[in-house]
Amino acid sequence: MIELRELRGVGIGTGVVVGPVLHVARQAAVAPTDAPSTIGAEAEVARAREALAAVSAQLRERAAGADDATRDVLEAQALMTDDPALLDGVESKLAGGITAEKAVADSFAEFAAMLADAGEYFAERAADLHDLSDRAVAVLQGRSTELVVDPGHPYVLVARDLAPADTAVLDLDRVLAFVTSEGGPTSHTAILARQRGIIALVGATGVESLPEGVEVIVDAERGRVSVDPDAAELADAEARIAARAAAASAPIGPGVLADGTPIKLLANLGKPGEAADAVRLGAEGVGLFRTEFLFLDSADAPTVEEQTASYREVLAAFPGKRVVVRLLDAGADKPLAFLSPGEEENPALGRRGLRALRASESVLRDQLAALAAAADGTEAELWVMAPMVATVEETRFVSDAVHGVGIPVAGVMVEIPSVALIADRVLAHTDFASIGTNDLTQYTLAADRQLGSVAALQDPWHPAVLRLVSEVGAAGAALGKPVGVCGEAAADPLLAVVLAGLGVTSLSMSPTALADVRVSLARYTPDDAAAIARAALAAEEAADAREAARAAADTITAGR
């Protein structure tokens, strides 16, 4: 008898899938002890070097056969393993007479703690170091580091978390969904799921209790796993799977509400190479082009010429369409050698985004010059926006800077509640606003978006977040200026309707989410969307808002 009926987590994507559970875990390394070495420091150094080299070689081998995104991650991890500072730390500890296993584990732990203290993006990467440590210790202990999964049939993969090196050896064609007990919306598991269009649920506490082989429904849109579903639940799931398949195969058109009111559907891109897929999946332009890929892992800022070439590649893929480029979003949370403010106690609240660019204004000026040069000679409609804007003064500064190089459309990201609350004054000094719901939720709920332990609070359905969105939407409507959403919220089909009802005029998301959102918007008129939005706004909690919106939507569709 199976007593466990339902688990909750953070859904990635909007799909539903039915399948059997398969638990996946590597053989755990034995935790090293403080026992003294019996072979001496010199021999232990040799063992540590060989183990780290073996892990590095394995990562590079897997990178060679991986897709672009996974390859980048694996190569970055190989570089971590090769880091001379790591080996220096290991050798220093071995001089104290401990074993290579203990020295390696302690050195990785120190690096991981440093990343965890940095918070945000780097805190999530600390998990990568734990994985590297486990692999190196396993090599030293003569244990397997391989993840062998071949049940011979499709399955719902259940794990504590998935390391990039593990996902690289999985046959993803057999994986129906990922369900992990750890990890947040920006973990590698979540990133991979979005890129491959795989349904996922992360931060689902209790998944270890799922019996092997039991049939489950993984519902990413509703953030839940139903265990051993009954006939009615299965029928509902199958109907939704069929509806989603039909939507995916339907002719691609622009984003519109039921009366034809346009809601532009745009793509979030992280590299120029992602443009082709966005075009194929019907993106009406780009709502968020992240430029960090040009700057991360570089000791020096890229030249104007290097930047121009990359920006032009994206602009050329969208002739006659809008391409919104976000200025470099780095700083204390993502330190760069040429843009680092030094250590800060709370990097998410420190000098990042526009604040960091103003402190290193030559980087900002070079980026704007490159964008202006890239736009010259292409047919795309270039819009430029600044991240981490908090005040009207900052809005005026960045608008003047963008317009000053001849780019006609300047905007700000709304990620901080202060900007949302005075959106009427902010929009008076700029051409558009784009709401980054991930950071806006983080700052509104005071919940680090990288931490699985507070992932439940990182929910854009929270009425406090929706109220801030409504402030921006109302200001945009009053001033006749566009208001977009480029955070994860835009990819949620029902929440997309709510956002439209709150005055949002464009939605930008992972291209794989476009089809679902396009279908959802087309079901409702502007009045319907406003009614659904009011129901969500009136709720007390995020889950209540989601349910209230669904009930309102169901009532509207049932009345036709």
From TrEMBL:
The active site is at residues 188, 486. It comes from the Bacteria. SUPFAM superfamilies: Enzyme I of the PEP:sugar phosphotransferase system HPr-binding (sub)domain (SSF47831), Phosphoenolpyruvate/pyruvate domain (SSF51621), Phosphohistidine domain (SSF52009). Keywords: Cytoplasm, Kinase, Magnesium, Metal-binding, Phosphotransferase system, Pyruvate, Sugar transport, Transferase, Transport. It holds the Pfam family PEP-utilizers_C. Residues 154-223 form the PEP-utilising enzyme mobile domain. This is Phosphoenolpyruvate-protein phosphotransferase. GO terms for biological process: phosphoenolpyruvate-dependent sugar phosphotransferase system. PROSITE patterns: PEP_ENZYMES_PHOS_SITE. Belongs to the PEP-utilizing enzyme family. It is an enzyme of class 2 (transferase). Phosphoenolpyruvate binds at residues 290, 326, 438-439, 449. Residues 254-523 form the PEP-utilising enzyme C-terminal domain. Residues 8-125 form the Phosphotransferase system enzyme I N-terminal domain. PANTHER family: PHOSPHOENOLPYRUVATE-PROTEIN PHOSPHOTRANSFERASE. The gene is ptsP. GO terms for cellular component: cytoplasm. Its main location: cytoplasm.
